[in-house]
Amino acid sequence: MTILRADVEDEYQDEPLYASAKRIYPQSVHGVYRRIKWIILCVTLGIYYLLPFVRWDRGPNEPHQAVLVDLAHRRFYFFFIEIWPQEVYYLTGLLILAAMTLFLMNALAGRVWCGYLCPQTVWTDLFIMVERFVEGDRRERMRKDAGPWTVQRVREKALKHALWLIIAWWTGGAWVLYFADAPTLVRELATFQAPAIAWIWIGILTFTTYVLAGTMREQVCLYMCPWPRIQAAMTDENALNVTYRLDRGEPRMSLKKATASRALGEQAGDCIDCGQCVAVCPTGVDIRNGDNLGCIQCGLCIDACDAVMKKVDRPLRLIAYDNEINIGRRRAGKPNLFRPIRARTILYVVVIALVGGVMTTALATRVNLDVSAIHDRNPMFVKTVDGSIRNGYSIRIINRSSGDRNFAITAEGAESPRLEAIGVDPDAQGRLIAQVGPDQTRELRVLATLPAGKRAEQQDMTFRITDVDSGATAVVRDHFDAP
Amino acid sequence: MSAESTGAHHKPTDAPGTGATTGHEWDGIKELNTPLPRWWLYTFYACIVWAVAYWLVYPAWPLITGYTHGFSGWQSRAAIVRDMDDLKAMRAPMNEKIAQASLAEIEKTPELLSFARAQGSAVFAINCSPCHGAGGQGSPGYPNLNADRWIWGGTLDEIDTTITHGARWDADPDTHATMMPSFGKDGTLKADEISSVADYVRTLSGAAPEAGADLAKGKKIFADNCAVCHGEDGKGNIELGAPNLTTQVWLYGPTKADIIHRVTVGGGGVMPAWGAKLDAPTIKTLAVFVHSLGGGQ
Q1: Tens-digit pLDDT profile for residues A345-364
Q2: Model ipTM?
Q3: What topology does CATH give the domain B95-174+277-294?
Q4: Do residue A385 and residue B244 have CB atoms under 8 angstroms apart?
Q5: Which chain A residues are Cβ-neighbours of B148 within 8 angstroms?
Q6: Residues B20, B24, B28, B32: what is their CA dihedral angle, to the nearest 10 degrees?
Q7: How far apart are CA A296 and CA A465, in angstroms?
Q8: B191-265 maps to which CATH number?
Q9: To probe the interface with B, which of A18, A131, A374 has the most B CB atoms within 10 Å?
């Protein structure tokens, strides 16, 4: 424990324990990046809200929803892909791909994810749009918030929050549709017959959407999200980031002064210090202070600055996707340089291609029949009354097809022991045939017995499962234990 | 809410010499003061309030002879009882089907067999494994359930009966009560007679006789004293729980000393009557599980 000197302690206690969040009133803006953001907003939200209703024919006995997380039956459906719990390594692959793509985006053009694609950004954008629609643009909102509570203002605030809650409710509503047959669940929700768990999850997501996109906004990016810290550590001097070109902008001065200075042949920056870049910023940062944890690099300040540059008849892109290297190069009179192909970008692309390739191969060669075997651990083997040696196994047959299938179970190696399966009588030819239902597994207890006098040592053994109709087979290697 | 947040010239707080410090200083290194956002601080306060409320509602503080119970009256013991009841209710539909099906039907119906083996295996692990071993492999005095050797019978019904009523369990009138006499302790057989009959019994399962063994004498003693239960040929009698002596599986061990000891003290293992503790469907699933271990009869 640190013991503070009395005077230091006094000084420390003068400091406030907290800083109240500064309210940000982002101004509307028009331009290239704003348009890109609107398009991405429409596409991503469109996918999110509508995807559960897309149908996909998988044949009988299977759900017809293109994307479905069926928790009750432990299946995940994604168009032509069906994932069982034991295949959850696909998810690992997907996470690696997601991380590498994020890193690649970062190495090429900074926080593309944060600025354009992150749900926090997209929903916040949508909520700000609603706010602007109801209460007016930046100046108007600031004036109203500074003024007294009027009937008009109460009405506007109520309308805004109501609209936010409706959007938030739809967001939660769409979420639960991924976990059940969407049209059925919509009907159940409309008639108040949906299960309680659906309502609870809609409630949770309504709350989080409303709070995070409506009231928390940039606080999420500044204080909650770990990615800005990681991103700051991972960026390099070659990555394009939203950058204020201070070589062009400084010294900043009013338009009048700048014109006068230029006439006299003195140095004058292009930045007229109009503050538009700050006014439109959804996280309230000043891009002219350089790279900043708070900057989500959405490019709106580029649009704002371009609009001003057009008006004052100076070249566009005083704020642009650029990097520190180029600021130095321009100052030295050299042309801009951007090197997208670097060791790290190559590495990311290679990893993405590798993992993507492995996953594609795994999916393409996925068979709808599989078998696994677990040898009894205790006892490893049994000497029975007539001196023969018996081993027990749990054999699980996996039928991923959408119909009943009959499988013959045979053993190879280990001097072909006699097989029995509990609950399965041998047929006329003495074969063990087990039926497995559609899209199901069946676990069988299989006993393998070698008569007394056969080789008494551990031997390799293979179980072969053969579809009696199609001839498809699956094998699993195991062993036969003996004293 | 009137704060104009977006002045054009923010000073970077982490630039040297510009930000406020906490007043902490170590060898000239100062700690910058970056205050928490207000909502964060309030969340912290809310956690404190939550903790206090938690103390009041739930059992929390240990006292000298007890603890504070909390207003809700919540108890971990009551919670586990509730959970167990929920579990029973969850299994009830399947156990209903198990109760109505015959043991043979259970084994022929994949759905019932799968449930019976799962539930039976859990019940076995709790109640049976202390004596019969985790995999039913047994140990001297406790039968191996995998080896096709059934003292009281190996059909599904016989296993079910043995589990329900136990063996030599006095509290159950229907228990398997017969027991081997203590031929040596009672003085029925003398030491040399016991030795001879032990020599003979070993040969029943094909073991080579020891040098100098008088098998004829042993055979005679066996016919006079043992055959009444174990049979003339030594193949045993499940009605009496007299084990088959001609097999490779020995309940108390295959050596001559093991056999002499058993003939001398007699008796037999004791198994509780589980019908007093487990309900009928549970015992049925247990019987199916035990039957499936080695294929049963």
Answers
A1: 999 999 999 999 999 998 88
A2: 0.79
A3: Cytochrome Bc1 Complex; Chain D, domain 2 (1.10.760)
A4: yes
A5: 384-386
A6: -30
A7: 56
A8: 1.10.760.10
A9: A18
